[in-house]
């Protein structure tokens, strides 16, 4: 058995990707790929290092007649699938389709209260000849219809599960050249992603400003209800801008995950993202519930600065609890 085959078999026995092995011996992934494809051979220092990493002798690596392997974990080799460029591109395309369905469903659910607030505002201002009861009835019908359509989008997501299962759930490695292609794609996309993220965050933060301004200087119930619609529409616009960009960024990152060890920084970011996904919608619900109950819009805005400080404190507490 030649050196290239031994490197492949030992690497897979350890359950490592080409990138992981490359990081351990401080070379590029392309170098490991060339060794395994017999395009080049490692120098003597690398062979010594390979022998130390794989816990074998240099004689075993260099002499073709030495073929005896101790493979207690050989079953790992069968579980490692190779993903080529076409499969990786199809994965990204599928994730974008899923993101499109999720975005539509979330936007519809967020905007489902817009008809209710609109009809209540018309009833309070004596327009469209609506009574409060009729306005509430029409608003509830609008909520049910829009939420039902939104749920239908969520249900359609499961048709794409099989197309994304390998990269999302299984152990895999990238075919030669795929890593460099997607690393370049991710690097180029970061500019667009950061721009969309900035716009979305601005919309989320600024969304309550029109409502706060009207409630403090005008105070008319009908106008406040209309400003609630503006708030919901701005939040929906932020979701519409951010969700596809976030899905593509995550898809690129998932493809490259076989070739990058998860750092402590990335783990902290993921934990903070999971907390934010629950925390900020809950804070928005508290703000709207408290404001609608008391109609003290000039006071309830204090939820936001307090909530921001509390979020930072919760992230710090979460990191403290995650320490060994």
TrEMBL record:
Is NAD among this UniProt entry's keywords? no
Q: Which InterPro entries does its entry note?
A: Cro/C1-type_HTH, Lambda_DNA-bd_dom_sf
Q: Where in this chain does the record put each HTH cro/C1-type domain?
A: 7-61
Q: Which CDD domains match?
A: HTH_XRE
Q: Which residues cross the membrane?
A: 101-122, 134-155, 197-218, 224-242, 275-293, 299-321
Is-annotated flag, keyword Membrane? yes
Pfam family name, one: HTH_3
Report the Gene3D superfamilies cross-referenced here: lambda repressor-like DNA-binding domains
Give the keywords, sorted: DNA-binding, Membrane, Transmembrane, Transmembrane helix
Q: Which PANTHER family match?
A: HTH-TYPE TRANSCRIPTIONAL REGULATOR IMMR, TRACRIPTIONAL REGULATORY PROTEIN-RELATED-RELATED
Name the chain's protein: Transcriptional regulator
- Which lineage ranks, top first, belong to the organism behind this chain? Bacteria, Pseudomonadati, Pseudomonadota, Gammaproteobacteria, Alteromonadales
């Amino acid at each position: 058995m030649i050196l290239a085959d031994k490197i492949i078999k030992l690497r897979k026995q350890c359950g490592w990707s080409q990138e992981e092995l490359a990081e351990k011996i401080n070379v590029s992934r392309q170098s490991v790929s060339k060794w395994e494809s017999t395009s080049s051979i490692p120098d003597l220092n690398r062979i010594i290092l390979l022998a130390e990493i794989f816990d074998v002798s240099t004689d075993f690596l260099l002499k073709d007649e030495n073929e005896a392997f101790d493979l207690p974990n050989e079953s790992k080799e069968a579980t490692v699938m190779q993903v080529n460029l076409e499969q990786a591109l199809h994965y990204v395309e599928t994730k974008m389709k899923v993101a499109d369905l999720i975005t539509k469903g979330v936007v519809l659910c967020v905007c489902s209260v817009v008809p209710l607030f609109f009809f209540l505002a018309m009833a309070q201002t004596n327009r469209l000849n609506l009574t409060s009861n009729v306005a509430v009835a029409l608003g509830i019908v609008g909520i049910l219809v829009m939420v039902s359509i939104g749920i239908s989008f969520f249900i359609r997501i499961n048709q794409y599960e099989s197309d994304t299962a390998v990269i999302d759930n299984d152990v895999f490695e990238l075919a030669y050249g795929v890593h460099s292609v997607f690393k370049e794609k991710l690097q180029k996309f970061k500019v667009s992603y950061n721009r969309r993220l900035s716009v979305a965050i601005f919309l989320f933060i600024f969304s309550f400003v029109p409502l706060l301004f009207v409630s403090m200087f005008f105070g008319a119930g009908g106008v406040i209800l209309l400003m609630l619609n503006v708030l919901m529409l701005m939040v929906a616009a932020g979701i519409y801008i951010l969700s596809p960009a976030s899905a593509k960024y995550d898809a690129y990152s998932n493809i490259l995950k076989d070739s990058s060890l998860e750092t402590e920084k990335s783990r902290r970011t993921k934990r903070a993202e999971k907390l934010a996904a629950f925390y900020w919608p809950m804070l928005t619900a508290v703000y709207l519930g408290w404001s609608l109950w008391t109609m003290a819009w000039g006071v309830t805005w204090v939820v936001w600065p307090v909530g921001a400080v509390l979020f930072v404190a919760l992230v710090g507490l979460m990191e403290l609890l995650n320490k060994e």
